[in-house]
Design goal:
Layout (H helix, E strand, L loop, with lengths): L9 E3 L2 E3 L4 E2 L13 E2 L3 H19 L3 H17 L1 H12 L3 H18 L7 E6 L2 E9 L2 E5 L5 H14 L3 E5 L6 H10 L8 E3 L6 H7 L5 E5 L2 H12 L4 E5 L4 E5 L5 H13 L9 E7 L3 H13 L19 H17 L3 E4 L24 E4 L6 H4 L6 E7 L2 H9 L6 E5 L3 H8 L6 E4 L18 E2 L4 H6 L2 E9 L7
Parallel strand pairs: 7-8, 7-10, 8-9, 10-11, 12-13, 12-17, 13-16, 15-16, 17-18
Antiparallel strand pairs: 1-2, 3-4, 5-6, 6-20, 11-19, 14-15
Helix pairs in contact: 2-4, 3-4, 4-5, 7-8, 9-10
The structure holds nicotinamide-adenine-dinucleotide.
Length: 489
């Protein structure tokens, strides 16, 4: 059956399911209401967890190859509907349509790549009549808690890990972006047996109900570090397994030998893409003092090319930020810069009135924010230490290599980092000393599905993607098999 993107329901045990209460989120470009979605109750959660539990035996005993083939057929079905998913994504999230389309395409790619990985039994010892085999056994029922910045790819990532490894799953999209997540799971019903993939939309209480639910064995959470702490605390009571993919404050270290216009344009892209609402966006720039002036001029010139506006309009690079809370949060960073006099706003930010003035709102009234660049804030300022998750970017300078490594590592976060230089050997030496889960030389924000992705320190626990990501959805079992009973007496 074809999907329609006008009515949205929960999906429990393979079937659509409605709720008495409804809510809706708004299109951040226009502030118009999107369609109604369910507000799930505890009973809905119990029903979804029950369905996932009932489906577990059959699915976990389905051979890996068959599970992989089902996932691949589903991946194709998602890609075949990429336009419809992308349009809905732009309406709920705000990102430009071309980037919404690439989010759907990259989700297909992620499923295809993950499907090429397989966890096989490993013989760890075979001697003296005894064989020891390391096995990967599904954990059980998983709970996926998804944020609003990449509602499709993060939901798909969690579904793919769970189903490949033989787990079943209950998915919760963000209340700000529930639409594409619900439709992804509706579409999944055409491929997976009932109860294997379920979805619930709800209010702020649904996440905590999931993390404390005794019938859920693992929570795969992506969101802020503050919420991640609450998730872990709640999961500890039932000793659930957790994967936490949390916030970041990624540094980019620019060495003096770079091609300034080229690197500045790349950094502008990796900072302002998705209106900077990316966990692994560049969020602190350390540029060598000898090129700082020229680099900042080039960075501003590159960022000025970015058209801000409704993601449905062609040529738009930056849509609005996703919601009013996020808008006010970014304002708070600008106000702090102005009030404390830390740093010079060299681009964006209507500093006179402490309010941003969208360059081009396309005649609409959404949560638009111009790309904003703050030069030379102090290392202890809010903008250098915290994650705005919006388009306000600090640039500072360095002179001594040891010192800049220390400053880049001086953070509670450890998600991503990058080093930029023509001297790749020198850049790699610096990169190896940075405390982050993903470190790039001469690029940033470029995770690949075969490489484990996760945060150090306050940026997370565990990883997704690659073999290690799949292992995170399994119990490891050491199976000892003796061919004959050996007397120990
Ligand atoms: P958030 O923490 O506010 O919400 C994330 C999800 O958690 C939502 O579905 C929300 O409804 C749910 N939630 C809220 N409170 C909860 C609770 N007490 N228990 C359980 N669930 C709860 O995050 P957000 O604002 O949606 O997303 C932005 C944050 O996510 C940023 O900090 C960003 O860096 C981070 N992020 C990290 C990654 C990564 O892979 N490391 C990827 C994307 C986003």
């Amino acid at each position: 059956m074809e999907l329609n993107f006008t009515t949205f329901t929960n999906i429990i045990d393979g079937k659509p399911s409605t709720t008495a209460e409804k809510r809706y989120s708004i299109n951040p470009s226009t502030k118009e209401a999107n369609p109604p979605v369910p507000v799930s109750t505890r009973e809905d959660l119990d029903a979804a967890v029950g369905a996932a539990r009932r489906a577990l035996k059959g699915w976990s005993e389905t051979p890996w190859e068959e599970r992989r083939n089902v996932l691949l057929r589903y991946a194709k079905a998602v890609a075949d509907r990429k336009e419809a998913f992308a349009e809905m994504l732009t309406r709920e999230q705000g990102k430009p349509l071309m980037f919404a389309l690439s989010e759907v395409k990259s989700s297909e790619g992620l499923m295809q790549t993950l499907a090429s990985v397989k966890l096989e039994d490993e013989v760890v010892l075979d001697e003296g009549g005894r064989r020891i085999v390391k096995r990967y056994v599904p954990l059980g029922v998983g709970g996926a808690i998804v944020p609003w910045n990449f509602p499709i790819s993060i939901m798909i990532q969690k579904i793919a890990h769970a189903v490949l490894t033989g787990n079943t799953i209950v998915c919760k999209p963000s209340p700000f972006t529930p639409y594409t997540g619900l439709k992804l799971v509706e579409l999944a019903q055409q491929f997976f047996p009932p109860g294997v993939v379920n979805a619930l939309s709800g209010n702020d209480d649904l996440g905590p109900w999931m993390t404390s639910h005794p019938g859920i064995d693992k929570i795969s959470f992506t969101g802020s570090s503050a919420t991640g702490r609450k998730v872990m605390e709640s999961c500890s009571r039932t000793l659930k397994r957790v994967t936490l993919e949390l916030g970041g404050k990624d540094p980019a270290i620019i060495l003096p030998d770079v091609d300034i216009p080229l690197v500045a344009s790349q950094i502008a892209f990796y900072s302002f893409f998705n209106s900077s609402q990316i966990c692994i966006a560049v969020k602190r720039i350390y540029v060598h003092s000898s090129i700082a002036k020229e680099f900042v001029t080039a960075l501003v010139a590159a960022a000025k090319q970015f058209k801000v506006g409704d993601g449905m309009e062609s040529g738009v690079f930056m849509g609005p930020v996703n919601n009013s809370m996020q808008y006010e949060k970014v304002m708070g960073f600008l106000e702090d810069v102005k009030e404390k006099g830390t740093g010079e706003v060299v681009m964006g930010g209507d500093v006179g009135r402490f309010r941003y003035k969208p360059a081009d709102k396309g005649g609409k009234s959404g949560f638009f924010i111009d790309p904003t660049i703050v030069f030379n804030p102090s290392d202890d300022s809010k903008i250098m230490r915290e994650e705005p998750f919006g388009p306000i970017l600090p640039v500072t300078t360095w002179e001594d290599e040891e010192e800049v490594i220390k400053r880049a590592n001086d953070t509670d976060m450890g998600l991503g980092a990058s080093v930029w230089s023509k001297d790749v050997e020198r850049a790699e030496k610096i990169a190896r000393r940075l405390e982050a889960g993903s470190v790039w030389v001469n690029e940033h924000t470029s995770p690949m599905p075969l490489a484990p992705f996760g945060g150090w320190k306050g940026s997370g626990i565990g990883v997704e993607n690659g073999r290690d990501g799949l292992v995170g959805w399994c119990n490891v079992q050491s199976l000892y098999v003796r061919r004959e009973v050996k007397s120990v007496l």
